[in-house]
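In pairs, describe these two lines:
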Amino acid sequence: MTAPTVDVHAHVLLPEVDRLVADRPGHAAARALDARRNGPDALAVSGAMVRERLGPLTDVAQRLAAMDRAGVDVQLVSPSPSHYHYWADRDLARAVCETANTATAKHCAHAPERLRGLGLVPLQHPDLAVRALDHAVGEGLAGVEIGSHAPGRELSDPAYEPFWELAAETGAIVFLHPFGCTLDERLDRWYLSNSVGQPVENAVALSHLIFSGVLDRHPRLRVVAAHGGGYLPTHLGRADHAWRVRPDARGCAHQPSHYARRLWFDSLVHDPHVLRELVRVAGADRVLLGSDFPFDMGAADPVAALRAADLPEPDFHAVRGGNAAALLTPEETR
């Protein structure tokens, strides 16, 4: 039987979360930082773009119709990264994550055979992340979505060890999706904040997971990197060289390229040559179809974009859906 076509990178907009944070202390400062990082031209274009896509971002019927047009059978739906709100204090952060988890689960419950969901955890409060992951799994979600860092904390921070341990123990998917780049105003023109910033943040976050030994300590961890892992997979030669020649780069047990086959990556790289290289580096069993539905930086026809890479037919079908179907199947039933 042919595996369903599964898109692991699709978003939902949650008005419940927006209402929760409106007018809260810290929200205005966070919006101001976002404005500085993106610049006025990007904000104007993005605002209009999101308004045009509110239907498929919030309405299940419109989402399913768009999936049918794209030939997608199943979506793994994650909250818009604009809902992270890593500035929030403990009480608000807990409420944001639990509200997002419940609302995403409710959205997916309208079509459970076609929609699976991911929740959120408050990276700014590592001790609350375990509780939030528990809550997400308890809501029936397949795991959680996280950013590339929290203010003052990288993903290599030892405070996250209990979170990684629980994610590995439960088999929860951790979808790594950056939001905002710490290069700030250097990227505030020409939408560099996204076209350059997102791949940079992916590469930095994954490097922290690799070099710090997180993946050594938690070999069952299931991390899926958005945007094909950013710049990292195609530049692992430099990381491997540093690991070989510099003792201060030896935080992990193996050279960094080893870990490309311990992670999963979506296919959203916008270039068939890069996609073929990603499959070569990570393995055809570690790449998953991704569209960034329904945003303008996504792929309107992700299957066609995958087909353009001209992969061997078994690899094409693995990326199209076979790998994701296996990843979304509980371990005890596999």
